[in-house]
Amino acid sequence: MSTTQQNNRVDEVQLLDDHAVDLFAKAMKEKLAKKRLQGFGGWHDISTLRDATLNELLLRAVAKGDPVDVGNFAMMLFCRNDNNKESA
């Protein structure tokens, strides 16, 4: 495979990856908006919602088989991690 073919393949794979992430992020945002309308929220407030509770909700979402809920709970835990705040 030539260098040009390899670069084209990498570009194609990156486009597919980026598109998939964009689609998933859109679904996550829509689900979060729906839940806010239902009165849910406050995941960012550690004084009212412990990490252990978010972990439990994440595990329930995995068991339920809802990838969007899994993504949202994983995002919440990810954003609470001090090491990740600088990369945002």
In brief:
This protein is mainly alpha-helical. It is built from four helices and no strands.
Topology:
Blueprint (H helix, E strand, L loop, with lengths): L2 H35 L13 H14 L2 H14 L1 H4 L3
Account of the protein in words:
Helices cover 76% and strands 0% of the residues. It has 88 residues and is mainly α. Helix 1 packs across helix 3 and helix 2 packs antiparallel against helix 3. The N and C termini lie far apart (37 Å). The protein has one domain. 3% of the residues are buried.
Search tags:
88 residues; mainly alpha; 76% helix
Give the radius of gyration. 17 Å
Structural class: mainly alpha
Domain unit count: 1
Q: How many strands? A: 0
Helicity level: over 70%
Task: List low-confidence stretches.
Answer: none
So how many helices?
Answer: 4
User: What overall geometry do the principal axes of the alpha carbons give?
Assistant: elongated
Q: What is the end-to-end distance?
A: 37 Å
Average pLDDT number: 90
**Percent range for β-strand residues:** under 5%
Main beta-sheet annotation: none
- Summarize the helix and strand pattern as letters: HHHH
Assembly state of the chains shown: single chain
